[in-house]
Amino acid sequence: MKEEAGVAFQAQVQVFQAWPNDLLICTFPKLGTTWLSEIVDMIYHDGNVEKCKWNAVFNQVPFLEMNDPNMPNGGSHVILLAKTPSLHLVKTHLPVQLLPVSFWDQDCKVIYVARNPKDVATSSSYFYQMAKMHPDPSTMEEFLQNSTAGKVAYRSWYAHVKDCWEKRQEKRLLYLFYEDMKHVRKIAQFLGKEVAEGMAAKIVHHTSFQEMRKNPADNYKTLPSWMMDHSLLPFLRKGIAGDWKKHFMVTQNKRFNKHYEEQVEGSDLCFHMEI
Ligand code: PPS
């Protein structure tokens, strides 16, 4: 039954009809999707904080694979988007090969965010505790084993980040890194929007970890606790590069480095990550 639902869901996503002006934000989970969504939303609203801060981030930038139980008709975001006849800002965690073909047919712009895999594993292990659609992460050791084996949602971080890196040559695709996300003007330029320096500074401030953490609309607070248990952790948890150092044991780090080297061998994609 679960498999049938998965096939039906995949079919629903695949028939999604993109418009030429749509923007797709594509990432592996925990790479900074919510942060980038807020930045893009502010750029499109000319830095108007009031317009951006009230609506849940997943309404501002609907999540292609999500069903929101607070919405009528099962809350399918694919259906919601189909009913919105204007510019779509869309978020997805799908790997580049599984994106609905209409995004490519319409030559839509895509922004990809990557983040170093050690912080992703750390962030994910916490997220799996609060987000009840995921299995319990168990110990860090077990979670790391599962992560490196691709036995997590959306499978392998390596394939995801590398495949999109290759795609950037042939598509209108901006490849960003979590660690460089404050470069608002670079993002605006890609979107074809003029953003003066003062406006960029305002957007950087409003989308800082401290500001976004205060805003329930950015923290998935409207989701029911059976989906996300906010009593365990806030969605915006730590928001830094290098938090993995507090969580990896020396042996785990060595094993992770070895696996990392094997996986990225031959690719010119480079992460500034301490080893
Ligand atoms: S999800 O669930 O896959 O959509 O999560 P995603 O939004 O991709 O990633 C969540 C992590 O991004 C951090 N985050 C931020 N860091 C810095 N500044 C800002 N403004 C910001 N917003 C979100 C968030 O805290 C998660 O990382 P960790 O390391 O767990 O804190």
From TrEMBL:
Alphabetically ordered keywords of this record: Cytoplasm, Transferase
Sulfotransferase domain ranges (all copies): 20-267
Cell compartment(s), UniProt: Cytoplasm
Main subcellular localisation: cytoplasm
InterPro entries referenced in this protein's UniProt entry, alphabetically: P-loop_NTPase, Sulfotransferase_dom
Entry's Gene Ontology molecular function annotations: sulfotransferase activity
Pfam families with a match to the protein in the record: Sulfotransfer_1
GO CC, alphabetical: cytoplasm
EC code: 2.8.2.-
Superkingdom, natural source: Eukaryota
Listed PANTHER family: SULFOTRANSFERASE SULT
Family from the record: Belongs to the sulfotransferase 1 family.
Name of the featured protein: Sulfotransferase
Source organism per UniProt: Dromaius novaehollandiae
